[in-house]
Amino acid sequence: MSRLLQEKDLPAVTLVCNRAMPLDHFFVELLHEKTFGDNNYDKNLNLVEENDGAIVGFASGVVRQRKGEKVGFTKLLAVNPDFREKGIGFQLLSELETKFRELGCVKARIMDSAPNYFMPGLDYRYTEGTCLLQKAKYTRDGVSLNLIADLQYFPIDHSEEIRQCEEKGVQIRRALPSDKEASLAMVAREWTSWIPEVEATFRHDPVTLFIGLKDNQVVGFSAYDSNNVRTGWFGPMGVLPEYRKFGIGQIVCKLCLAEIKKQGFHTSVIPWVGPVRFYSKVCGARNDRTFWTYEKEL
User: Fold this and answer.
1) Does residue 209 have a pLDDT over 90?
2) Which pLDDT band, with edges at 50, 70 and 90, does 1 fall under?
3) CA distance 76 to 61
4) Could you tell me where in the chain the CATH 3.40.630.30 domains are found?
5) Residues 93-97: contacts with CB under 8 Å, at least 24 apart
6) 3-145+291-297 maps to CATH 3.40.630.30
7) What is the rounded distance in angstroms from the CA atom of residue 285 to the CA atom of residue 276?
8) pLDDT digits (tens, 9 = 90+) for 15-73
């Protein structure tokens, strides 16, 4: 049987995740953010499996409201490749499902646990994962896409574009702690699901959010390090519909990507994308990873 995850387990769990999911890169701080750092963290939904005292499997779950329903999300599930075909992954997944039912969840989903999530679904190239979910009778119900922006030759200085916005009466700048209330109110108007991610940017110093202001009102924004901190993670980004003619989205997007480049990243992940054409035009982003989303009735 499994036991509950402890903070001291994170280095060993990191090794398991990196071996189990070679398309991704994990580090201790990232796994802490995904588990203990989740606002809805429940110690009973974070499990490890051991063999002779060594961690060989790991599962992390969380319960959230989704479309008016209580849903249990398996955020991460990893088994050391040397211990596959022993039923460990199925056991861990089944334990999470049991706990989800006990907590009143009506459905279970895989990985797309916004606002704190690792990836927006299961990368279809993880064949072992797709086989496990078929065995566990999950239904594939959608596809999500990540883009990647090449930052190698991406410019750092965007002062001319900022000046051009100012000529249109729009101020572009990094958000200050005092902008939090106004920024969240603006996000709440159009994108309520992004409120936690935008709020997370105000925990950093400096704030990892750029905003556009018209008549001293926040009308657009772009974020980085709002999720999967220090991985080159971009977003979310939005501009109120009536202000989309000023070029605000383009410049705040570019300013965030410039900051990600300053952190030392040569690429930036633009996750869970809808407007592919916008990002392709603004920063040359290309289609990168495809994820399958899964759901199961409990």
Assistant:
1) yes
2) confident
3) 7
4) 3-145+291-297, 153-265
5) 93/59, 93/132, 93/136, 94/136, 95/2, 95/47, 95/59, 96/45, 96/47, 96/59, 96/61, 96/72, 97/72, 97/136, 97/296, 97/298
6) yes
7) 8
8) 999 999 999 999 999 999 999 999 999 999 999 999 999 999 999 999 999 999 999 99
